[in-house]
Amino acid sequence: MARIIVDDVHCKGCGLCVDACPKGVLALDDERITPKGYHPAKLIDPDNCIGCSSCFTTCPDVAITVVM
Amino acid sequence: MPAPKTPVTLPDYQVERIGSQIKEGETIKSARPHALTDAIFNYCPGCTHGIVNRLVAEVIDELGIEGKTVGIAPVGCSVMAYDFFNCDMIEAAHGRAPAVATGVKRVHPDNVVFAYQGDGDLASIGTAETVHAATRGEKITVIFINNAIYGMTGGQMAPTSLPNQVTQTSPYGRDVATVGYPVRIAELLSTLDGVAYVERVTCDSTAHIMAAKRALKKAFQNQIDGVGYSLVEVVATCPTNWGMSPHDAFEWLRENMLPYYPLGVYKDVVADGYANAAEAALARAKDCPIAQKGKEA
Amino acid sequence: MAENNQGAERVLMKGNEVLAEAAMRAGCRFFFGYPITPQTELAAYMAKKLPLCGGTFLQAESEVAAINMVYGAAAAGARVMTSSSSPGVSLKGEGVSYMAGADVPGVIVNVERGGPGLGGIQPSQSDYFQATRALGHGDFYMPVLAPSTVQEMADLIYLAFDLADEYRTPAMILADGMIGQMMEPVTLPPARDPETLPKKPWATTGTRMEREHNVVNSLYLSPNKLEDTNFERFERYAQIKETQQRQELLLCDDAEIVVVAFGASSRIARTAVREARAKGIKAGLLRPITLWPFPTKAVDQVIANGAKQFLSVELNMGQMVEDVRLAANGRAEVSFYGRTGGVLPTPEEVLAQIEKLANGEASGVLPRPVDCPSSNERGE
To answer: Which of A19, A36, A67 sits opposite B27 (nearest CB)?
Structure first.
């Protein structure tokens, strides 16, 4: 099963990963705020992450690590 | 892209922060490239500069050239790029990156030298340096970010701003009757004999980003192979100064930028069957006796 | 300087070519420039000779590009130079400021011509302010060396490369069209063994994955950090001022009227001072070799020796005279005589000024002296 780890140091909550995800399993986490003041990306539907790395590819802040 | 041969690992600075969250039995599929430092990009949220910075770093990693790469950062939003890459870096004056790159490359021809420039830097204040480094056939790699606006200074009209595009200094829209037309750099440079490879790519989708990476890799490989000057123009967005969300900026890019700046390969001497730019230039001047002087039998 | 005479040779050469030859002997293997009169022989000599010793001559598309190529090559650790003449040097101001801000060494030659604007192509010293008051924006200085003979063209460019490397700063040779174009016998300095050149661990040569990445940069968004770098740089400047002032003193042991002149004008002033002595006037010559740092200690010394008046003789409308006045700081009278636009004063003109001072009259260029007819009066 694949998942992502978001590096809060780098994530700026731009949402491009959410747009890029073909499975719609990502969202911005309204309940957390990064040290820089952003709502970071979050995997909301872990069962359906296929580890395609589209989010990683699109992330402008290289904040995502994809593991399988 | 084919998967990198070596297993993906985290850069040292993420081993504790991210590595501690990786569970037993999990393997890393995608991670920050090692050629990037831990510095937080100074780009606005959703700015595509970061995507291209990462692609450059990935290419450096995959070609195994970090130790001999020297990057030249421009003036503009990517002015701080010298903090982002783990290779040696030089900060150039506005528009002068190709001249600075020329100086470095002439001293250390075995180094891999790249210049990373925006549209104001490359296509306006540094047009002379750009055109002449290209026509000299400097064996450097230039990454050109075209987002049709001056980002760092707050959204003024760029040499590549589209007709009728509203910016801070074209508040009624770019009036081509008074300020003229946008510069199409890929097309312009493709006419120069020193140029080995020019391609225009974009970064609005996963597929386009992967294509951009292939172009960048080729542009670096050309330098390693001594083929000649290579430039990759990346049609990019500036959500902040375009006044749009990152998502809408991509929509605007597809709707307005791509028709004006068509993607594609504008010159590739290797694909044309030549060993390098010099050979292609010689063939082009086949009817000019003085240009053929000294031609090897 | 050519302290070690081994490998030295004596030849008759043109000033501009000596600059080029001595630069190569100092270990310079990279030249980036753009054609302009009256320095072009330098570039032409480099174009011919550098490729023969494994170096690179590159004619840039502009002065702006040339100085930025110098910046890049210097950042990469090379001994590198550019040369130009006044209007072209103005264009180099941007790059020189970046070099100073990034602490990158390199040598800039200015074979001055008359100005402002396109000016003329005859000798001038009208870029003194530009050279000594920072050639570009920002808080910085650079060593400025002023040769007055073809021999000094060799000695001083040799020194300029060493000063640049030692203090990590751009350095300038401020010559003029007269010394650039004249031929004199010269003892060329020995060629430096590249192995003996200073190591540059800060240079952007590629990390080889053996060290942290080097960054050559002049941007500091934190005001405190930027201030730190400026303080650090000015500590180096203080060291340069303390240890690198250079000058020649002629007949200054008992001089009451000291003529201050550098470069081409010092050659004329030298004759005038000798003639004044022959007339019984206690005149001397203070010839600054370093224009920055200005030889303030020598000014102190000649005042201590009894100098009561200084006469700054320049090929401009009065620039170095301000440094003389600052150095004298009210302890002696300071006046000025100069010709401009490419016109050279005669020794007699300078002697007449010395005599005026000796007679207690004011010296100066305004109103235009009757013995200096205008071009109209000359029928031009």
So the answer is: A67
pLDDT tens track for B83-104: 999 999 999 999 999 999 999 9
Query: HEC states along chain B?
Result: CCCCCCCCCCCHHHCCCCHHHCCCCCCEEECCCCCECCCCCCCCCCCCHHHHHHHHHHHHHHHCCHHHEEEEECCCHHHHHHHHECCEEEECCCCCHHHHHHHHHHHCCCCEEEEEEEHHHHHHHCHHHHHHHHHHCCCCEEEEEECCCECCCCCECCCCCCCCCCECCECCCCCHHHHCCCCCHHHHHCCCCCEEEEEEEECCCHHHHHHHHHHHHHHHHHHHCCCCEEEEEEECCCHHHHCCCHHHHHHHHHHHHHHHCCCEEEEECCCCCCCCHHHHHHHHCCCCHHHHCCCCC
User: Do C and A share at least 3 CB pairs under 8 Å?
Assistant: no
CATH of the domain at C331: 3.40.50.920
Whether residue C379 is contained in a domain is answered as: no
Same domain, yes or no: C254 and C228: no
Q: At what angle do helices C150-167 and C15-25 cross, to 10 degrees?
A: 40
> Best interface-test mutation with A: which of B12, B27, B32, B59 has the largest number of A CBs within 10 A?
B32
User: Which neighbouring-strand residues pair with B145?
Assistant: B118, B234
Who among B38, B44, B246 is closest to A15 (CB)?
A: B246
The question of ipTM being above 0.85 is answered as yes
Instruction: For C244-301, give the DSSP string.
Output: ---EEEES-SS-SEEEE--HHHHHHHHHHHHHHHHTT--EEEEEESEEES--HHHHHH
CA gap B167, A14 in Å, rounded: 23
Give the Cα separation of A44 and B275 in Å (integer).
51
Which residues lie closer than 8 Å to B136 by C-beta, 6 or more apart? B102, B194, B229
pLDDT greater than 70 at residue B39: yes
Query: Which positions ≥6 away from C2 have C-beta within 8 Å?
Result: C8, C154, C155, C158, C187, C188, C189, C190
Domain boundaries, chain A: 3-67
What is the percentage of chain C residues whose pLDDT exceeds 90? 91
Bridge partners for C110 per DSSP: C84, C174
- Which residues in chain C (191-210) have CB-CB distances under 8 A to chain B? 204-210
Spatial separation of the C-alpha atoms in residues C125 and C337, rounded to whole Å: 13
- Which CATH code fits A3-67? 3.30.70.20
Q: What is the pLDDT of residue C374?
A: 78
Domain residue limits at C189: 9-243
Pairwise CB contact (< 8 Å): B206 & A36:
no
Domain range enclosing B253: 45-292
Sort strands C309-314 and C333-338 into parallel, antiparallel or unpaired.
parallel
Count of B–C CB contacts within 8 Å? 136
Task: Give mean pLDDT, residues C294-312.
Answer: 98
Summarize the confidence of residues B157-181 as an average pLDDT. Answer: 97
* B82 vs C contacts (CB less than 8 Å): 215, 217
Q: Is A24 on the interface with B (CB under 8 A)?
A: no
B contact residues 133-162, partner C, Cβ 8 Å cutoff: none
Tokens of C43: 């570039």
CATH number, domain containing residue C231:
3.40.50.970
Judge whether B17 is closer than 8 Å to chain A, CB to CB.
yes
Phi first, then psi: give them for residue C336, nearest 5 degrees. Answer: -135, 145
Residue of chain B minimizing CA distance to C93? B93
- Among A16, A20, A53, beta carbon nearest to B30: A53
